[in-house]
Amino acid sequence: MSKMTAVQYKTKIEPVWCPGCGDFGVLNALCNALSVKEVDPKNMVFVSGIGCSGRLPPYVQSYGFHTVHGRVLPIATGIKVGNPDLTVIAVGGDGDAFAIGGGHIPHMARRNPSIVYIVMDNGTYGLTKGQASPTGPLGMKTGASPYGTVEPPLNPIAMALAYDASFVARGYSGKNKELEALIVRAMNHRGFSIIDVISPCITFYNTYKELPPQLAAIPADHDVKDRAKAFELALRDDKIHLGVFYENERPAFEDRLKETADKARGAGAPKLDEIFLEFA
Predict the structure, then answer these.
(1) pLDDT of residue 277
(2) Which residue of 120, 135, 136, 228 pairs with 94 in a disulfide if CB–CB is 3.0 to 4.6 A?
(3) Contact 184, 33 (CB under 8 A)
(4) Cβ–Cβ contacts within 10 Å for residue 76, how many?
(5) % of the chain with per-residue pLDDT over 90
(6) Does residue 33 register a pLDDT over 90?
(7) Fold observed for domain 7-278
(8) CA-only gyration radius of the chain, Å
(9) What three-state secondary structure class fits 89?
(10) CA distance 199 to 201
(11) Distances in Å between the alpha carbon of 7 and those of 10, 28, 32, 123, 204?
């Protein structure tokens, strides 16, 4: 396959996102990363859930699976286990990932399949008229919470670190080159990679003006293998750090499954006929 440009990875389907939505930046960074990695569309699957971000798969030249609310990761895992040679990229929003789908993240972290999970995090449920999401700030006023929310937000980075995900990063849709580099690095990582991408909702929670002064690159001397230091960065409230917080190479889920299957088929393994005879 000849190298494809980023534009060639996009389909002719026009995105239905609001003009100015951060998800456009995520789509651009994704297609740039795919071009860098020279991924064959025939060997790639995008899996998404519900919400504005869930619309992304049809916009990319690949196979796609638009699944139900919060079930992105189980579907992505099944695809990866079914064909470990596929490039599997899961995409979702903060509501999809950290509310109804939040219970799947610890199991992805412990299994460690080679799947990239890109969460487009805007702090709001943009598709259902702007209610506060699990990452929306305390006191956030919405149509559903006119006097302000009473629940403090989750910290996605700290949560992923607590679960010991083997690759944890944060990007920003407004920093396209940096986000592209994060996605490429996540795709190079063998194991579960989660990237929390700050992707502002222009309609219901426009943070474009207030965000830039709060953003800071993770210091160049940060040791990505030091989980304790990664926690320190994740818990700081003076800046929102962008970059790779943590990366730990360990056996991937699909590799461990293959080892188990090889043992089951290897010399000395019990034969099915012998097992059946025990119950005859």
Answers:
(1) 84
(2) 135
(3) yes
(4) 28
(5) 87
(6) yes
(7) Rossmann fold (3.40.50)
(8) 20
(9) strand
(10) 7
(11) 5, 9, 8, 29, 29
